[in-house]
């Protein structure tokens, strides 16, 4: 990845998808270290530790090959969040608005799209849309898009718990602002 994300380590954890990673030989070793740290800090019992271990391993194993995941783990016993960052060649056939889903015909209400200011990548675009699945469950999907000279950068979050999405929205925006290019 030629991006550098200067994220708040009190809130977010990078979720690796390929192993070994840093000092960890595999996903089990990584999740155990996180569970031990979070369990100690929050006084988690055995069942909470088991749930968190399975959740962390699922986050890692579920990542796409070109996806860079970040988990919001400030208070995993209260709220979890997941953000995905993609760095891809410029999609010449798609505008930044299209990449952000601003014209998604499946949206259940008008898409809220606006310039995104203050990020390390410069001016981008942010869009939030609401989509209904076949059971009528509404999911909020937010996308931040930057078109650089040689690539498109996209951050995506989605949540079917609309209150949780709104609770974490400022933290998602802060994570998006922390994305920059690597030296």
TrEMBL record:
- Please give the superkingdom of this protein's source: Bacteria
The protein, known as: Uncharacterized protein
Mind giving the lineage of the organism this protein is from?
Bacteria, Bacillati, Actinomycetota, Actinomycetes, Micrococcales
């Amino acid at each position: 990845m030629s991006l550098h994300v200067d994220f708040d380590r009190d809130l977010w954890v990078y979720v690796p998808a390929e192993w070994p990673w840093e000092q960890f030989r595999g996903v089990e070793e990584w999740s155990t270290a996180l569970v031990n740290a979070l369990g100690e800090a929050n006084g988690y019992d055995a069942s909470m530790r088991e749930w968190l271990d399975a959740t962390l391993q699922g986050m890692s194993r579920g990542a796409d090959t070109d996806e860079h995941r970040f988990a919001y783990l400030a208070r995993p016993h209260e709220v979890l969040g997941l953000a995905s960052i993609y760095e891809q060649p410029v999609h010449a056939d798609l505008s930044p608005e299209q990449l952000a889903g601003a014209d998604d015909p499946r949206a259940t209400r008008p898409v809220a799209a606006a310039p995104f200011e203050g990020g390390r990548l410069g001016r981008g675009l942010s869009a939030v849309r609401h989509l209904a699945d076949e059971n009528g469950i509404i999911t909020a999907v937010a996308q931040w898009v930057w078109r650089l000279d040689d690539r498109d950068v996209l951050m995506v979050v989605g949540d079917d718990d609309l209150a949780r999405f709104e609770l974490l929205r400022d933290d998602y925006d802060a994570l998006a602002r922390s994305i920059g290019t690597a030296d």
